Amino acid sequence: MPASPPRILLGLTGGVSAYKAAELCRLLIRSGADVRVVMTEAATRFIGPVTMQALSGQPVAGDLWDRSIDNAMGHIELSRDRDLIVVAPASADFMAKVALGLADDLLSTLCLARECPLLLAPAMNRQMWENVATRRNLAQLRSDGVTILGPASGDQACGEVGEGRMLEPETLAAHISAFLRPKVLQDVRVLVTAGPTFEAIDPVRGITNRSSGRMGYAVAQAALEAGAQVTLVTGPTALTPPFGVQLIPAVSAQDMLEAVQAHVASAQIFVAVAAVADYRVRQASVRKIKKGDQPLTLELEPTVDILQAVSSRPAAPFCVGFAAESHDLERYAKEKRARKHLPLLAANVAQEAIGAEDNALILFDDNGRHAIPRGPKIEQARALVRHIAALYRARA
Questions:
Q1: What are phi and psi of 135, to 5 degrees?
Q2: Can you list the pairs that 348-356 forms with residues at least 24 positions away whose Cβ atoms lie under 8 Å?
Q3: Which CATH number fits domain 7-180: 3.40.250.10, 3.40.47.10, 3.40.50.1950, 3.20.20.450?
Q4: Would the pLDDT of 69 be above 60?
Q5: Which residues are catalytic?
Q6: Considering only Cβ atoms within 10 Å of each terminal Cβ, which end of the chain, N or C, has fewer?
């Protein structure tokens, strides 16, 4: 979020998803935002204005001809001090209005007369979402610079399943926060690796590690928030990828290497967060190895060092490495950065970071050592991305 509290106009249109706007409002208020609510007449059929007033702490507007609005030009002035207008849910009818420039109620008038960005969170039946008219309006809105958040796919109030479901409040709040952040990597192409790899021993067993993938996913999210175009190559995780990344799944170190090689030529920044296995079985069994009474010996061979392969390319992108060490953290981190010729390396204590939801990082670059205090991994990632952007811009 910006240094000063962001000022958001939250618009609600008619739809069953209007109940989610109450939680969205609460989350935005909790994050420090100043939220003003405007509801269409149809929206009041699904959720009461009193509820939204209680949550926002401000009167709810809805009537274009309401004389209680302080300024006689309230249909314009209500949005003049806002940093952002968010309409959630945005019905098919409302999207059509905005696409055509119609202004026959307070909310559509404010959208037409706005001087700030507009975000729409669609919510409608799947056939309505797929209708050619809605697709045409969607294309026009995007062409006009309107940001579309979602929709998601899933169960719908009509009993059908498909695309058209409004994004959940937590997801919308994260997108709104991201939209308001400085775009320090605007349009920069960033390639991120995340998660563990799995090296097969036989069809049911393998060598892996305890990496959850949270840090890599957080870096991808933070890069998206900074305006980057993000490709995320991920090993097996239980995480939901950030909305907006190009996702490329990988299982083994070889899979991840091939995925990185296929996309690195177009990347301007490469952030290697994945906990790639250092060794793999030289000859994996095609059949399950049966348990016996005797010790089992496996012959291991080293995997290809993906970060080294990228950083040694003739036209290498700006490379950022990670080092998770159990001891002598700074010595090993500095050695790794020098050996792989990295402009930046982020290091942490393995037993404190792997699988945890928070982290503490130490960054090493040409200017020395920079500590990021322990905190949630998304905040660590945001600080890291700001540091990356500063170094990247300085080099460019």
A1: -65, -35
A2: 348/322, 348/323, 348/324, 349/324, 349/325, 350/324, 350/325, 350/326, 351/326, 353/215, 353/324, 354/209, 354/210, 354/211, 354/212, 354/275, 354/324, 355/210, 355/211, 355/212, 356/214
A3: 3.40.50.1950
A4: no
A5: 158
A6: C
pLDDT at residue 175 greater than cutoff 90: no
Residues of the chain with CATH 3.40.50.10300: 189-395
Residue 28 has pLDDT above 60, yes or no: yes
Using a pLDDT cut of 70, give the percent of the chain over it. 94
List every span in the chain annotated with CATH 3.40.50.1950. Answer: 7-180
Place of tokens 């036209």: 315
CATH superfamily of 189-395: CoaB-like (3.40.50.10300)
pLDDT band at 344 (very low <50, low <70, confident <90, very high): very high
Average pLDDT over residues 270-289: 95
Q: Is a pLDDT exceeding 80 seen at residue 72? A: no
One-letter amino acid of 35: V
The DSSP-derived string for 141-154 is: HHHTT-EE---EEE
* Cα torsion through 170, 171, 174, 178, rounded to 10: -170
On average, the pLDDT of the chain sits at 91
